[in-house]
Amino acid sequence: MERSLTHIALFAALIAVLGLVPPLYLAGAVPVTAQTLGVMLCGTVLGARRGALAVLLFLLLVALGLPLLSGGRGGLGVFVGPSVGYLVGFPLAAFVAGWIMERTTLPPFWAATAGGVIGGIGVMYVCGITGMAIVLDKTLAEAALLGLAFLPGDMIKAVLAGLVTQGIARARPGALLARA
């Protein structure tokens, strides 16, 4: 229990640290950030339940006003802006990525990359595009076109999640809780 709480807190901190990478704005007011890599890693390393809890802890800290999102954003206001769908999708994405890691017998790189693509991109885009459509008063097709601007970077992040997860599996197999 204590070990799980420590890992959850550490991975919430990882997402926060990845927010220090300066954001890039491509589609409207939704920034391209490194934080989605942290969300993918929460699932692929910690597993479905712990990964989702780490992301929920991070979002709780953001809601309390800590400026942990890229660009130093935080507070309840971010949950009514164009990024709201992506924020809602964070814990779901981590859960799905972790679920895939836990349930597949693929080698860690392939399982984590698949988890990153299906959870960190697929689930995240469904939530994010829906949120953008609602907040920006766009059709789903218009919001999807805006969201697709993120796809190349997110594919790179999914592969990076696979590489990092594989590295952890090789260096410290017991630290890969999604496979423990």
UniProtKB/TrEMBL annotation:
Regions crossing the membrane: 50-69, 76-97, 109-136
InterPro entries: BioY
Mode of membrane association: Multi-pass membrane protein
Origin superkingdom: Bacteria
Signal peptide: none
A GO term from the CC aspect: plasma membrane
A GO molecular function held by the record: biotin transmembrane transporter activity
Keywords for the protein's UniProt record, in alphabetical order: Cell membrane, Membrane, Transmembrane, Transmembrane helix, Transport
Places the protein is found: Cell membrane
Coiled-coil region list: none
Family to which the UniProt record says this protein belongs: Belongs to the BioY family.
Name of protein: Biotin transporter
